[in-house]
C-alpha cells in the first residue's frame, strides 16, 4: 500500500510528525478533513506549521492501520461535535434562546444566537452552532421524537 509520505508518528509532546515522500522531516503536522461531515473518510490534508499542505490522502481507509488509527485519534480530539438525540427544552421561541439538549455524551445547554446558526446540510442533517462556537450535529431531524421536532420546527 503506497502513501503520499514515508512515515507518520506521534512525538513526545503528543504532536504528529511527518517524513514526506522526499524524506524531509516536518514536526507538528495537523491533519485536516476536506469534508468532515459529508465525507469524513475522503480528502485528508496534512498541513505543516506554516499552514501549507505537505501531503494529501485521498481516503483515510486506504492507509495502513497504525497511520489510520493515529489520524483518527487526532480527529477525535480536534473535532468535538456532540450528536443531538433530543431537544429537551427551549427558553423562548425567539433568539437568542437557551436550549437544553440530550446528546450521546449527556445533557448539554447552549445559547442559540440567531436562526442562521442552524445550518441545513441536506437529507435532514442539521448543524447547530452555539454562541461559544461549539457545533452540535443533528444527523436526521426527521428521526427525532415528536416533542423535539416540534421545538425545532419553530426555528427552521
Can you walk through the features of this model?
- The chain has 156 residues and is mainly β.
- Helices cover 14% and strands 44% of the residues.
- It contains 2 helices and 11 strands, in the order βββββαββββββα.
- The chain has helices at residues 65-78, 146-153; strands at residues 5-10, 16-20, 25-33, 42-47, 53-59, 84-90, 97-103, 106-112, 118-122, 125-129, 135-138.
- The strands form 3 sheets. A 5-stranded antiparallel β-sheet has the order 1-2-3-4-5. The chain has a 3-stranded antiparallel β-sheet with strand order 6-7-8.
- Strand 2 (16-20) and strand 3 form a beta hairpin.
- The protein is elongated.
- The mean pLDDT is 93.
How are the strands of the biggest sheet laid out side by side? 1-2-3-4-5
Number of helices: 2
Shape field: elongated
Contiguous low-pLDDT stretches (5 residues minimum) are: none
SS content category? mainly beta
SSE string: EEEEEHEEEEEEH
Q: Roughly how many Å apart are the termini?
A: 46 Å
Main beta sheet: strand number and arrangement? Answer: 5 strands, antiparallel
Secondary structure: helix percent: 10-25%
Total strands: the figure is 11
Taking all Cα atoms into account, the compactness measure Rg is 19 Å
Report mean pLDDT, rounded to a whole number.
Answer: 93
Strand content: 35-45%
